[in-house]
Amino acid sequence: MGNTKIKQHYETAKKTGVLNISQRKMMEIPMNMKMLAPILRTLDLSHNLFKSIPEEIGIYIMLKNINLSNNKLTLLPDAMGALIKLEILNASVNQITSLPGSLSSLKNLKQVNLSQNLITEFPLMFCGLTHLDVLDLSKNKLTNVPDGVEGLHVTELNLNQNQITQLSDKLAECPRLKNLRLEENCLQLNSIPIIILKDSKISNIAVDGNLFESKQIADLDGYEKYMERYTAVKKKMF
């Protein structure tokens, strides 16, 4: 990006608190960006060539929205945990294999998109974040959903297109979970915890593309209870 272009973007950011430097083939964060730290609320670094994000990202403590999607990131820095005002985190379409525990400090998070990465372990650091509504972990390398997941406060959990074979029955204890997306995984019919159908808040469970016919879920104990919730939600929509 030429100096003139950089200057234009920075001048705009000084007035709006929004800096968009996507699709610039950038490999490093510009040094001059530091001057925006006290005012920057939205930062878009998507569709570049970043292999890493420096620890200095932690100085942008006013950030509410950061878009790191479509880069070549393999991890996120611990310093991300300093962005305590952050509400939207998009790091989709990267090569991230694991996440820092410091993300548990982001108490204002509302939406997290980590789809199309290489994450192998379910990120329990998002449990306990009471404002988090949507967590998208689709198209990763997850093989199970472990105990501890009951601390998730999301209304929607997207686990489509992973390699999941096991689900903790603790999913049924998630206090706000309504939409559970499990399409195109490696689940057997007996891998679906009965309690999810029988006694949870989940009113929409998507299971197409697993190791059983999706209609077979109707044979499971508790399916009628699940359908009562599903129907009640549909009625409210119309």
TrEMBL record:
GO CC field: cytoplasm
Annotated signal sequence range: none
InterPro entries: Leu-rich_rpt (IPR001611), Leu-rich_rpt_typical-subtyp (IPR003591), LRR_dom_sf (IPR032675), LRR_domain-containing (IPR050216)
Sections of the chain in a coiled coil: none
Pfam family membership, one: LRR_8
Entry keywords, A to Z: Leucine-rich repeat, Repeat
This protein's name: Leucine-rich repeat-containing protein
